[in-house]
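Let us walk through a complete example step by step. Step one is to write down the protein sequence. Step two is to encode the small molecule, zinc ion, as a SMILES string so that its atoms and bonds are unambiguous. Step three, shown after the inputs, is the structure prediction itself.
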Amino acid sequence: MIAVVKSAPADGLAGTEIRDCPVPDPGPGEVLVRVAATAICGTDKHIYHWDPSIQDSVQPPRIYGHEFCGFVEKIGAGAERAFEGALQIGDYVSAEMHVICGECAQCRSGNGHICVRTRIYGLHEDGAFAEFVRVPASNIVKLPRYVPLRVGAFLDALGNAVHTTQVVDLAGKSVAVTGFGPIGAMSAAIAEHSGASVVIVTDVSDHALETARRWAATRGFENFHAFNVRTTPAAEVKKAIETITNGVGVDVVCEMSGSSAAINFGLEIVRMGGTLSLLGLPAGHSVTIEDYTRNVIFKGVTMHGIIGRRMYSTWQRMLALLRSGLDVEWVVQATFDSLHEFHEGIARFDRHEALKVVFFPEGEQNALRRAGFSPAGP
Ligand SMILES: [Zn+2]
Ligand SMILES: [Zn+2]
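Step three: the predicted structure of the complex.
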C-alpha cells in the first residue's frame, strides 16, 4: 500500500517519503480500515517539519496522520464483539486515535482523554496517511450516513472543537473565538449552530478574517464580528467588544491560538464569572498572565484546559450536532485524489491557503462509490 512515512528525523522532503509499505494485519481486538479520506492536522505539520515539540513522540520510520474515515476491511479475532450490533466488513467508520490504558485513575473515572498512558496512532504508532490503517476495535466509531466523507476525514479535529465548546451551554451566550484556524473556524460554526447570541472572532491574519466573514455571510449570521488584533490596537478592539456585549464582556472565550497576547486578551474581554476554554498550545510551554489578580481571581473566571476528545461523549455530541445540521464541510479548502500529492498538500496548509486539506488515497469518486454515496459534483 502507498503510505506517507516520516522516514528520517529531518524537515520537509528529506524527512517524509511517500512509499510502498506492507498492509498491516489486524491482531486480536484490532480492525483494519481501508482509508477513504484523511486530513492534515497541525500536529502533522509539526511532524513534517520535524519541530522540536514532537521529536520526543515520533520515532522514524513512522506512518503519520490521525484524522480519517474509511471502511472496515478486516476484523481481528474477537474484534466484532467489541460492538453493539457487531462490526461488519464494509462498515463506514472513523476512530478515536488516542488509545488509552483503561486502568489508570483517570480511565477508571470516566476521564480517559487524560489517561497517563495515552498512545496516539499516527505519532507513537502507525497512522492514517495510508491506504489502510490498523486500530484497536475499541476505538472504532461507526459513522451514520449523514456524515459526508469530506467531514468524516477530520472528526478528530472537529472533536477538539466540540470538546472546547461543550464545557458550557452556548445557547444565548456571547462567544469569542481567538484564532481562526481550522479548529477555531469549527468552534465558531458550533457556537452559531448552538444558538450563541453573538460570535466574535479575532485573528492576526486578514485572510483568515476574510474567510470568517464570508462564512458568516453565507449563513446569514448577523451577530458576527471579526477583528484583526495585529493591525487594530487591543484597547480599541476591547472597547468595540464592550459595546457589542452591552458593557458586560463575553460569556465564553474559546482560545485556539496559544499566543500569550490572545490568552491575556481573552482574560480582558471575558465577563465577570465567565469561562475560558483553552485549546491553543503556546510555542514555548509558558504563558505570562498580565493581571492575574484582577482578571482571574477578582473576575472569578473558570479556565478549562482542553485536550483531545472525551471518550466518548464528545463523539456522541459531535455526531448529534452533525445530524442536526451543523455544517463544517466548508473548512475543506483543498482536496487531493492521491497520497502522492502529500508534499503539495502540506505546502498549501503551510501557506494557510486551506483550513483543511483532505486526501482521498483511492480518489474521491471511488471512495464515494464504495460508500454508496452519490458522486460529488465537479
Ligand atoms: Zn489532529
Ligand atoms: Zn489510563
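Step four is interpretation. The CA atoms of residues 217 and 284 lie 36 Å apart.
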